[in-house]
């Protein structure tokens, strides 16, 4: 029941609903998204929901913490809470930032040193064969 109420509450801002696991699947999967709610066809952000999980995902072009991402996260959490008749309990909250870079373009060691403030040093010396 709560999933349907949650979907209805998201509908105004996230009008496209996708079910990732077909109806009638004989098992229940905990901790992975089963439903996705998109602004439009593959238009970010996306809210994902399943048993034991709710996530709000955004991509680089639309990620602005104060203006867009934080309000989307808070709004989704409020709508999720409002979807249940009884108070729900959260046992974990996680904010995860994932970024990628093209390793073919940049020197990985230099990138890590400059962007993560981390120096990787190895004291192991090995010979690289000239031909494999």
Proportion of residues in helical segments: 25-40%
Tertiary shape: elongated
Radius of gyration: 21 Å
Overall residue-averaged pLDDT value: 84
Order of helices and strands: HEEEEHH
The helix count comes to 3
Low-confidence residue ranges: none
Terminal residue distance = 61 Å
Strand percent estimate: 15-25%
Q: What's the oligomerization state?
A: single chain
Structural class: alpha+beta
Number of strands: 4
Largest sheet: 4 strands, antiparallel
Q: Tell me the strand order in the biggest sheet.
A: 1-2-3-4
Detailed description of the structure:
With 132 residues, this protein is of the alpha+beta class. The protein has a domain at 2-82. The chain is 27% helix and 17% strand. The protein contains three helices and four strands, in the order αββββαα. A four-stranded antiparallel β-sheet has the order 1-2-3-4, covered by helices on one side. Strand 3 and strand 4 (53-57) form a beta hairpin. Helix 1 packs antiparallel against helix 2 (65-82). It starts with a helix and ends in a 16-residue tail after the last helix. The model has no long low-confidence stretch (mean pLDDT 84).
Layout of helices and strands:
Elements: H1 2-10, E1 16-19, E2 35-40, E3 43-50, E4 53-57, H2 65-82, H3 108-116
Antiparallel strand pairs: 1-2, 2-3, 3-4
Task: Summarize, please.
With 132 residues, the protein is of the alpha+beta class.
What attributes does this structure have?
elongated; 4-stranded antiparallel β-sheet; 132 residues; 4 strands; 3 helices; single chain; alpha+beta
């Amino acid at each position: 029941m709560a999933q349907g109420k949650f979907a209805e509450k998201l509908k105004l801002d996230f009008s496209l609903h996708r079910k990732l696991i077909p109806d009638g699947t004989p098992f229940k999967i905990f901790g992975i998204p089963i439903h996705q709610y998109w602004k439009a066809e593959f238009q970010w952000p996306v809210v994902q929901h399943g048993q034991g999980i709710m996530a709000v995902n955004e991509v680089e072009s639309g990620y602005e913490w104060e203006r867009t991402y934080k309000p989307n996260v808070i709004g989704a959490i409020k709508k999720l809470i409002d979807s249940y008749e009884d108070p729900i309990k959260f046992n974990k909250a996680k904010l995860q930032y994932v970024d990628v870079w093209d390793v073919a373009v940049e020197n990985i060691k230099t990138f890590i040193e400059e962007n993560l403030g981390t120096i990787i040093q190895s004291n192991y010396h090995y010979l690289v064969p000239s031909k494999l």
